Every structure is written in C-alpha cells, then in structure tokens.
Amino acid sequence: MTRERLYLAIVIAAGLVWFSMLFVRVPNIGFVSGLVVYLCAWWMVLFTVLPRRIRGQFEDGEVVPGSEPGAPVDPGIKPKLWLTTVITSGVWLVIVAVIGLELIDLEWFSYGPQIRTG
After folding, report:
1. Which residues in 79-107 are b (16+ Cβ under 10 Å) and which e?
2. Sequence-separated (6 or more) residues with CB below 8 Å from residue 72
3. Domain extent listing, the chain
4. What is the pLDDT of residues 49-102, one digit of tens each?
5. Eight-state DSSP code of residue 37
6. Cβ-contact 54, 75 below 8 angstroms
7. Quick one: which of 14, 22, 95, 115 could link to 89 by a disulfide (CB 3.0–4.6 Å)?
8. What are phi and psi of 104, to 5 degrees?
9. What is the Cα 10 distance to its own chain's centre?
C-alpha cells in the first residue's frame, strides 16, 4: 500500500466514522460534537504544519520590491492542507475511540461545584 493510499484510507475512515454517528449512538459524543472536535483539532494542527519547509525571499536572494523579505517564496498551501487533514483524521479517530470506548472517565474532567444527590 502506498503512502498516499494510506493517507486517503485514514481520511475516509474518519469520514465514515463521523457519518455513522448519524445512525449509531456513540457514548458521550454525537454527530455535531464530533464535527466540532474535528474542526478545532484541524485548526490546531494547521498552525503546527504551516511553518514547515518555508523559505523566505531573503534566503533565495530574490526579494520582490515592495514586499517583506521574510515572505515565503512558495508557501505550498495545498500539500499542507492535505497533511493537516490526514493528521487531524488520525488524531480524531483516536479521540473518538477513547471517548466512545470510555477508556477515560469524562467525570474526572468535570469542574465547578459538584452537586451531590442522595
């Protein structure tokens, strides 16, 4: 299996799991919650991937007049967006598995005043 196919399989698996949340109830996480978690994780991963392989104009010695010398020569946004999607899909699958299989007790993360009944 090539690397590209593996990446595509991860993204498709995350999409199928998310879509299946419409029909199958996953404990502690729903369809919209899954989407919100994915989008928040996607933005966080994006900002970690963006600085990869950036070469400023001053490094190449070809500064366009009137532009910032540190501006990238070729930002390569499309591959970075794809890499962000692949990484986020893998992270999201792990998060959904941990929450869905209740490997972590979410009550441990509760905050604020505790209401005791009984």
Report:
1. ebeebbbbbbbbbbbebbeebbeeeeeee
2. 54, 55, 56, 57
3. 3-104
4. 998 888 888 888 888 888 888 888 888 899 999 999 999 999 998 988 888 888
5. H
6. yes
7. 14
8. -120, 130
9. 12
